[in-house]
């Protein structure tokens, strides 16, 4: 009989530039024992977010940096395989900040504790459409973009986890939706599967000119997670009183290096009396139930679709995070760490 071991990705140095596998070490140790009130969780899926690159930097961020010598922070879902907590039964699916490892110890408290996956929900959807990216799409679009029926909305990263959901929400609210994405296959998916009205391949097309053609009356809402030249093209095309939602700025690489110069078309905000506002989805903790309700209704009725890009094997975790900055993913980037069928049977 093989004795299970716990593999853990430990952060050993802070990368400069792109995610560097050499800054992590895959260590193997014993599977931890749950203490009183705790449960042992076999991690099955990990979810990847560009913001994890920012957590590797020293300095001010919305969360503390991952400390050197500790397991890399990351969201995931898994099954309870042993429990000393009456609220967590063996076989339960739970979601939370499990970290890059095979086994995590769970307590039942709060957002960064582990939360039971509701019955009937695909556990890995808790990392995407019902996780950080779906919640960001929902609150960023509904609360900050506030699109009105008939308005024109531009969404960057249209084939990514956040952008694809944000664009569909704007469609559900009665808007014309234009996306941008890297490459023809992603653009075809955004239009053909996610139902965007148009999608511009920002790598091969003149985005500023295409937006002028596609939105002659200007962009009422810009939902942007890219920044840089893509944001500039959008700012050049703002409608009067536009709302620019700052979701992120992945084109900067989140690597803590010298940031690129500010938006070239900044003045368009003034000329168009526009508003630009950033947020972090965690700001909306108290309203998560509202988002789960509406996202669940749209997914359940088939009016909101989502894609998942699944890689295999914990040993690939650093490379998978780096891949987000290379545009390798279509939809939510997931990593399968264990066979969901074989894990945690009571
Ligand atoms: N504010 C919040 O609370 C919050 C929460 C979650 C996510 N976010 C932000 O939302 C954005 C999307 O995150 P996600 O998790 O949904 O990732 P994602 O869009 O699924 O994946 C990242 C995508 O970014 C694009 N990209 C990578 N490098 C780029 C570059 N240099 N220039 C332009 N595009 C580039 C690639 O798509 P293409 O091939 O199309 O370029 C890549 O596939 C990120 O900015 C993220 O930080 C914010």
Write up what this structure looks like:
- The structure is a single chain.
- The protein is an alpha/beta fold and 346 residues long.
- It contains 9 helices and 15 strands.
- Strands 3, 4, 5, 6, 7, 14 and 15 form a 7-stranded mixed β-sheet that branches. A 6-stranded parallel β-sheet has the order 10-9-8-11-12-13, sandwiched between helices. A two-stranded antiparallel sheet has the order 1-2.
- Helix 2 packs across helix 3, helix 2 (132-145) crosses helix 8 (288-300) and helix 5 (207-214) packs parallel to helix 6.
- It binds NADP nicotinamide-adenine-dinucleotide phosphate.
- NADP nicotinamide-adenine-dinucleotide phosphate (NAP) binds at residues 49-51, 132-133, 136, 157, 159-163, 181-182, 186, 225-226, 230, 247-248, 250-251, 279-281, 324-325, 327, 329.
Total helices: the number is: 9
How does the major sheet shape up? 7 strands, mixed
* Proportion of residues in helical segments: 10-25%
So, the CATH homologous superfamily of the largest domain? NAD(P)-binding Rossmann-like Domain
Radius of gyration: 21 Å
Shape: globular
Structural class: alpha/beta
CATH topology of the largest domain: Rossmann fold
**In what range is the share of β-strand residues?**
15-25%
Q: What is the element string, with H for helices and E for strands?
A: EEEHEEEEHEHEHEHEHEHEHEHE
Q: Determine the N-to-C terminus distance.
A: 19 Å
Oligomer: single chain
The number of domains:
2
Q: What top-tier CATH class of the largest domain fits best?
A: Alpha Beta
Annotation, overall tally of beta strands: 15
Attached small molecules: NADP nicotinamide-adenine-dinucleotide phosphate
The appropriate CATH architecture of the largest domain is: 3-Layer(aba) Sandwich
Mean model confidence by pLDDT? 95
């Amino acid at each position: 009989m093989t004795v299970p071991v716990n593999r853990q990705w430990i952060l050993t140095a802070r990368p400069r530039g792109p995610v560097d596998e050499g800054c992590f070490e895959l260590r193997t140790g014993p599977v931890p024992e749950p203490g009183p009130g705790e449960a042992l969780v076999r991690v099955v899926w990990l979810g990847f977010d560009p913001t994890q690159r920012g957590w590797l930097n020293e300095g001010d961020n919305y969360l503390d940096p991952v400390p050197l010598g500790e397991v890399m922070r990351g969201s995931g879902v898994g099954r309870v395989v042993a429990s000393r907590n009456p609220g967590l039964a063996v076989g339960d699916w739970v979601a939370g900040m499990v970290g890059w490892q095979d086994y995590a110890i769970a307590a039942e408290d709060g957002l960064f504790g582990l939360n039971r996956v509701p019955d009937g929900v695909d556990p890995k959807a808790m990392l995407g459409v019902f996780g950080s990216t779906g919640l960001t799409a929902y609150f960023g679009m509904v609360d900050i973009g506030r699109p009105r029926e008939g308005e024109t909305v531009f969404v960057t990263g249209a084939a990514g986890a956040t952008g694809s959901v944000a664009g569909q929400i704007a469609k559900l609210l009665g808007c014309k939706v234009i996306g941008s994405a890297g490459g023809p296959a992603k653009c075809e998916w955004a239009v053909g599967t996610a139902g965007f009205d148009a999608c511009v391949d920002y790598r091969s097309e003149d985005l500023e000119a295409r937006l002028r053609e596609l939105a002659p009356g200007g962009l009422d809402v810009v939902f942007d997670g890219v920044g840089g030249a893509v944001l500039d093209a959008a700012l050049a095309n703002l409608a009067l009183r536009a709302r620019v939602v700052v979701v992120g700025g992945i084109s900067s690489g989140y690597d803590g290096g010298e940031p690129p110069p500010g938006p070239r078309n900044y003045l368009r905000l003034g000329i168009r009396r526009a508003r630009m506002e950033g947020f972090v989805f965690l700001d909306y903790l108290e309203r998560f139930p509202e988002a789960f309700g509406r996202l669940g209704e749209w997914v359940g009725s088939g009016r909101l679709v989502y894609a998942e890009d699944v890689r295999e094997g914990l040993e690939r975790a650093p490379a998978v995070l780096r891949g987000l900055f290379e545009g390798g993913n279509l939809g939510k980037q997931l990593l399968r760490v264990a066979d969901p069928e074989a894990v945690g049977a009571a």
